[in-house]
Design brief:
alpha/beta, UDP-n-acetylglucosamine1-carboxyvinyl-transferase, Chain, 4-stranded mixed sheet, 26 strands, 26% strand, elongated, binds ligand EPZ
């Protein structure tokens, strides 16, 4: 096991380049299964544990998939799919593996996938995914820890309303509907930029998807999709994490490759807290030379404040002036980082879905752990400003979603290193 050792007190300054988006590349890698006749070549693929996991799932299906770390490229040849069953040990490792259900149903008319587990941040059900598949004409069977879906006569376009704008359900339904017979109208879908990126890639492959990023998506099924080249959008959550790091350490950082359009709530809230942000066509500069003021945040589906930035903002508010509130409306249990921040001296009171954070002058470095991906990022941010040394354990969570975190932070002047436990 490895841990991160962080010495607090350094201001971050310089430039950092944002990698491809984890939550765009995972559904897009699943979508490569729809590509016949030629392979897909994906560019700007981040080197993350989750990318390696879903690539391993594709290989389990008998699909040729190779990641080239040197060029951040992934080659997938989906022309032949040997199997339509994904094993427990891989799906257990990463819930996003469930995103292969839609493409397998569309391509092979069947899929057998281990039930995705919940995780630290909540139950993570898949009822909306299954409701969508059934609306498209698939039959669903659940038993012995597996979900089996079958559509021997192919899928048929349907009108589907999502009770909640679930990101994964939206992605799975779009991929299943891409080759269905007729039109599918998806109402109340997720509108995240990652949905738009998936739809753009599918349209490059020959799909006919309109309205991605709005509250109604229309998919006209086509008989075949062809593998193509595609470049993944930059990761708005990675960008947001470095923007918070720059503000918290009273630094001056240029976040290269950040797309302001995808970061509006983060930009607005950092300005409200007192940071200075300058946006240009290549990225965003974040500077701050004084203590930040506390703010109130409430997580919502896009275009609201992203739940994936909640923990990082809580770390920032732990050392800001005044009391702020953090309300989590997307997941039912995404305050696991509160206890870890309190070990460092943070003053936080949780009442149901809202945490009340009263800023303290300094946090004190100590041993903490990453309870999930974004909570781990929050602990690193807290360590950057704490008194003394902070050790963050269970960093496999962090490696799932941050490409070269230590190298990027060191290049900005942080005192951080990875050591064996
Ligand atoms: C995606 O997860 C992201 N993961 C998550 O990022 C992100 O937090 C989440 O969307 C919300 O933005 C990937 O894209 C790989 P949801 P997903 O389905 O698709 C409930 C990170 O840190 N729900 O939008 O699993 C669910 O319980 C990760 O990068 C149902 O009730 O999220 C949750 O409360 C963490 N039934 C809410 O919807 C369903 O069938 C949001 O889930 C599906 C979801």
């Amino acid at each position: 096991m490895e841990k991160l050792v962080i010495g607090g007190g350094n201001r971050l300054s310089g430039r950092v380049r944002i990698s491809g988006a984890k939550n765009a590349v995972l559904p897009i890698i699943a979508a490569t299964l729809l590509g016949q006749d030629s392979p897909s070549v994906l560019d700007e693929v981040p080197s993350l544990e989750d990318v390696h996991t879903i690539t391993a799932v594709l290989r389990e299906l008998g699909v040729k998939a190779e990641f080239c770390a040197g060029t951040n490229q992934l080659f997938v040849d989906g022309t032949v799919i040997g199997r339509c069953e994904a094993p427990y040990d891989l799906v257990r490792r990463m819930r996003a593996s469930f995103l292969i259900m839609g493409p397998l149903l569309a391509r092979c008319g069947q899929a057998k996938i281990s039930l995705p587990g919940g995780c630290a941040i909540g139950m993570r059900p898949i009822d909306l995914h299954l409701k969508g598949f059934e609306a498209l004409g698939a039959s669903i069977k659940i038993g012995h820890g597996f979900i089996e879906a079958a559509a021997p006569d192919g899928l048929k376009g349907a009108k589907i309303y999502l009770d909640f704008p679930s990101v994964g359900a939206t992605e799975n339904i779009i991929m299943a509907a891409a080759m269905a017979d007729g039109q599918t109208v998806l109402e109340n879908p997720a509108q995240e930029p990652e949905i738009v990126d998936l739809a753009n890639y599918l349209n490059v492959m020959g799909a006919r998807i309109r309205g991605a990023g709005t509250n109604v998506i229309k998919i006209d099924g086509v008989p075949k999709l062809t593998g193509r080249g595609y470049t993944i959008i930059p990761d708005r959550i990675e960008a947001g994490t470095y923007m918070v790091a720059a503000a918290m350490t009273r630094g001056d950082v240029y976040i290269e490759n950040a797309i302001s359009e995808h970061l509006k709530p983060i930009i607005a809230k950092l300005k409200e807290a007192g940071a200075t942000l300058e946006e240009d066509t290549e990225g965003i500069r974040v500077t701050c030379d004084h203590r930040l003021k506390s703010i109130d945040i409430k997580t919502m589906p896009y275009p609201g404040f992203p739940t994936d930035m909640q923990a990082q903002f809580m770390a920032m508010m732990a050392v800001s002036e005044g009391m702020g509130t953090v309300t989590e409306t997307v997941f039912e249990n995404r305050f696991m980082h509160v206890d870890e921040l309190k070990r460092m001296g943070a003053n936080i009171r949780v009442d149901g879905r809202t945490s009340y954070v009263t800023g303290t002058d300094r946090l004190s470095g100590c041993q903490v752990k990453a309870t999930d991906l974004r909570a781990g990022a929050a602990m690193v941010l807290a360590g950057l400003v704490a008194d003394g040394e902070t050790q963050v354990g269970y960093i496999h969570h962090i490696d799932r979603g941050y490409d070269n975190l230590v190298e990027k932070l060191v290049s900005l002047g942080a005192n951080i290193r990875r050591v064996d436990e």
